[in-house]
Specification:
Blueprint lengths: L1 E3 L13 H9 L5 E4 L5 H14 L3 E5 L3 E3 L4 E3 L9 H4 L8 E3 L6 H11 L14 E4 L3 E4 L1 H4 L2
Parallel strand pairs: 1-2, 2-3, 3-6
Antiparallel strand pairs: 4-5, 7-8
Length: about 150
């Protein structure tokens, strides 16, 4: 299981795009890959969607239970009516595993489990076998390039 941090620039900690990150780890055939909650679940949405399209592996989405500000991390509580962000992804079929994150309690995990109980898991995408390389950006060597 591998976790990656995406910043608001849309890049990983070492400045790779999400696709370049996937290409650089896919050879290890991980059981699952998740985008951690550095951005908070709502801001992670486009990256979760992109990763679900490109990665042929189980996708994990942790739920961040903190309200982010530059100075504090305050825990929110399901008892205060906080609905799990996973529930907002209903119908998208972007995840396979929904989990907790730092600060989660058994109460939070129960709330997550209830929110995703009837959500169908994401089917794993099948990508055509092509040669790919990654630095900061992905590079795909497609068959039509070889004939030139």
């Amino acid at each position: 299981m591998i976790s990656v941090t995406i910043f608001d620039s849309g890049r990983t900690l070492n400045a790779q795009t999400l696709e370049a990150f996937w290409i650089s780890i896919a050879h290890a055939k991980p059981l699952s890959v998740g985008i951690n909650c550095a951005l908070g679940t709502d801001q992670m949405r486009p990256y979760v969607e992109e990763f679900s399209r490109i990665a042929g592996v189980i996708q994990l989405l942790p739920e961040c239970r903190t309200t982010r500000s530059p100075f504090t991390h305050r825990l929110s509580s399901p008892a205060r009516g906080y609905g799990p962000p996973h529930a907002r992804l209903r119908g998208q079929r972007w995840l396979n595993i929904a989990g907790g994150c730092c600060g989660n309690t058994p109460e939070h995990i129960k709330c997550i489990a209830e929110a995703v109980r009837d959500i169908a898991p994401r089917p794993l995408p099948q990508r055509a076998p092509v040669t790919t390389y990654a630095g900061l950006e992905p590079f795909t060597l497609r068959p039509e390039f070889r004939s030139r």
